[in-house]
Amino acid sequence: MSPPLGPWPRRPLRYARRPRRYADPVKRRLIRLAGTLVVTGLCAAYIFWKIDVGRTVHVLVHANFGYFAASVAIVVLSVLPMAWRWQRLLAAKGIEDRLSWLVRAYFIAYTGGQVLPTAVGGDAVRIYETSRRHPGNGGAVAASVLLERALGGAATLALAAVGFALAVGRYDVGAYLWVEGAFVVATIVLAVLLFSRRLRPLLARTVPLLRFLRVERPVRAVYEGLHAYRGNVALLFWVFALTLVVQTVRVLAIWLTGKAVGVDLSPRPYYVMGPLLFLVLLVPFTVNGLAVRETFFVSFLGNLGVSANTAFATGFLFFFVTIALALPGLGIFVWESLRGARRAPVHQPDV
Predict the structure, then answer these.
(1) Where are the alpha helices (DSSP H) in 62-174?
(2) Distance set, CA 162 to CA 28, 238, 291 (Å)
(3) Is residue 103 within 8 Å of 83, Cβ to Cβ?
(4) How many helices (H) and strands (E) does the chain have?
(5) Does pTM top 0.85 for this prediction?
(6) How would you classify residue 314: left for phi > 0, otherwise alpha for psi between -120 and 50, otherwise beta?
(7) For a Cys-Cys bond, which of 26, 69, 159, 210 suits 216, CB 3.0-4.6 Å?
(8) Per residue in 41-64, pLDDT tens?
(9) What letter does residue 14 receive in the DSSP assignment?
(10) Rg of the chain's alpha carbons, rounded to an integer?
(11) What is the rounded end-to-end Cα distance, in angstroms, of the chain?
(12) Whose CA is closest to 258, among 304, 323, 326?
């Protein structure tokens, strides 16, 4: 039997005494605000250059509500299998909780993700809420959420590989196809780096760079969170398979928003577009992806012969799908606030 994989490589001693430098929080917020304004402004300028506002409004007003409702139903109902997946990951670490509460936590996280930076903000909400509910298990809770994020990214890029194979020779989507292929290759290389014992010295050499970029702690947390589950191969396989199925179905939500505004394309090109869209939504310098998302729709669908007005309408309607996904969490938050509900810790039996 091969020896167990050791912990995340520690930084060399020569870096241990280096004093930490903290940027002025106000300055960092100003930089972030400036970045947000620049990115959003450039994307908005591109959109207004490409579309006719009057025609776009006409397309949105006459959108098919049935297709839109079906898209909302897909993303809302997909929370159930994702919460069940999270429940299995928590149970593997001895943390038991009701599926209904985990579904609630997911919806609250989606609401938080509307105001916090990128989708990672929603993960922070889940970690905070669940750690309060299970005192003393913060590390295991964070590991489960981080593993979910990692598996979700892997499933998305596996879907991207399928989309890449489907698109070659069939759809002219320009550089997007090769960007997707590059992400797939990068994911394979990263997986080898993370799980190969022979390449561990290479990881140790990246610690100073990660410290300089101020991402050592989150990267270390992801690494250790992944390997905390390394002995549960069957669990990881089935969780990944479930995630792949969920992501496959969620891509249909994008296709349905296109159908709602008259985009006459089969679901196939959306399996090229979907994984890239999920990555675009992680761009940090945005206001909930506003303008960046719509720019991506206009650019990508434009390569497939869709008019800029209809492509923008598709992206804007999908924005309302994400808003609809946040409404249950908002309702839960308001209801609990009015009732003055307290989130009592859940007792964990001694092992």
Answers:
(1) 65-77, 79-91, 99-113, 120-133, 138-167
(2) 39, 19, 28
(3) yes
(4) 14, 0
(5) no
(6) alpha
(7) 210
(8) 777 787 778 778 888 888 888 899
(9) G
(10) 22
(11) 27
(12) 304
